[in-house]
């Protein structure tokens, strides 16, 4: 099967620091692939280049054979490669439902300005977006808080809202940077199940960065390991847990041991 994403010889330098050095790997359609590695290994930097939030110093990222690196985040999101939005892009004075509706406009015919100023094209989209927003809210189990103001939400619900906003753009590939961070075991297991359903029921390809090793081992089809900006391993969870270089990289790091 041809890959949906190809990361080809991607390098990122910040002045003297090489955050990613000649990283190459491929992601298959409907795969759940995790990128792991100790703090500062270059995981988030890699995700930012895949989503064009950062330019590559060299190398390129292809989505279905076409280059998506060094465009703009907006252009890449429109193609269907979406990084989950941080809290800051949530409109805190709007309700959960309004936030999800607004997020639909990223892919809309009508502009965001049209939404705010009430053009007729925007009104036509509006009904479809509202229906889709309710479907996403239902899918994520947020029905009970749909009319809550975002500013009133606890952290866990904000995370779920960020996910809803990402889904509203109808992604083909979803990039999740530490989706389980700060969650307790039960919350993490619920989120693991949800990410699986994104793939199983919606056919979304998922890339995730995570430090929660039990969750990573449970959820991933394959894992790519970065260390000091280098790719040091790639394989199935079982292969990664048995990999000498990976075990070495994690020894003496602050992260939890890789084996479990
Ligand atoms: N905008 C930037 N300017 C300069 N250096 C940066 C920038 N962004 C990241 N770095 C550096 O690049 C390296 C990789 O950072 P990155 O955030 O990608 O690591 P990470 O693997 O995501 O780490 P963590 O697990 O702690 O989130 C680090 O040394 C970091 O300090
Ligand atoms: Mg990071």
Automatic annotation (TrEMBL):
Domain ABC transporter: 5-253
Molecular function GO labels: ATP binding; ATP hydrolysis activity
Cross-referenced Pfam families: ABC_tran (PF00005), BCA_ABC_TP_C (PF12399)
Protein name listed in UniProt: Amino acid/amide ABC transporter ATP-binding protein 1 (HAAT family)
Any one cellular-component term (Gene Ontology): plasma membrane
Residue ranges of coiled coil: none
Keyword DNA damage: no
Alphabetized CDD domains for the sequence: ABC_Mj1267_LivG_branched
InterPro entries membership: AAA+_ATPase (IPR003593), ABC_AA/LPS_Transport (IPR051120), ABC_transporter-like_ATP-bd (IPR003439), BCA_ABC_TP_C (IPR032823), P-loop_NTPase (IPR027417)
Alphabetized Gene3D superfamilies for the sequence: P-loop containing nucleotide triphosphate hydrolases
Keyword Phosphoprotein among record annotations: no
Top-level taxon of origin: Bacteria
SUPFAM superfamilies in alphabetical order: P-loop containing nucleoside triphosphate hydrolases
Originating species: Rhodobacter maris
Keywords assigned: ATP-binding, Nucleotide-binding, Transport
């Amino acid at each position: 099967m041809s890959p949906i994403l190809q990361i080809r010889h991607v390098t990122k330098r910040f002045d003297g620091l090489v955050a990613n050095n000649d990283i190459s790997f491929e992601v298959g359609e409907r795969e759940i692939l995790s990128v792991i590695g100790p703090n500062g290994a270059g995981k988030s930097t890699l995700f930012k280049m895949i989503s064009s939030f950062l330019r590559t110093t060299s190398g390129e990222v292809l989505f279905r054979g076409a280059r998506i690196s060094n465009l703009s985040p907006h252009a890449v999101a429109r193609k269907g490669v979406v990084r989950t939005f941080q809290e800051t892009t949530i409109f805190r004075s709007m309700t959960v439902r309004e936030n999800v509706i607004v997020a639909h406009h990223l892919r809309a015919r009508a502009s965001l300005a049209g939404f705010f100023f009430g053009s007729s094209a925007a009104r036509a989209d509006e009904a479809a977006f509202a229906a889709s927003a309710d479907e996403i809210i239902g899918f994520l189990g947020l029905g009970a808080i749909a009319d809550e103001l975002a500013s009133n939400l606890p952290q866990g619900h904000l995370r779920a809202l960020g996910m809803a906003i990402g889904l509203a753009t109808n992604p083909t590939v979803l990039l999740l940077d530490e989706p389980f961070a700060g969650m307790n075991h039960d919350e993490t297991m619920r989120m693991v199940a949800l990410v699986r359903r994104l793939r199983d029921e919606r056919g979304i390809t998922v890339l995730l960065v995570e430090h929660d090793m039990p969750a990573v081992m449970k959820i991933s089809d394959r894992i790519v390991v970065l260390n000091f900006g280098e790719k040091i391993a790639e394989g199935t969870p079982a292969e990664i847990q048995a990999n000498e270089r990976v075990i070495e990289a994690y020894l003496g790091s602050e992260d939890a041991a890789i084996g479990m």
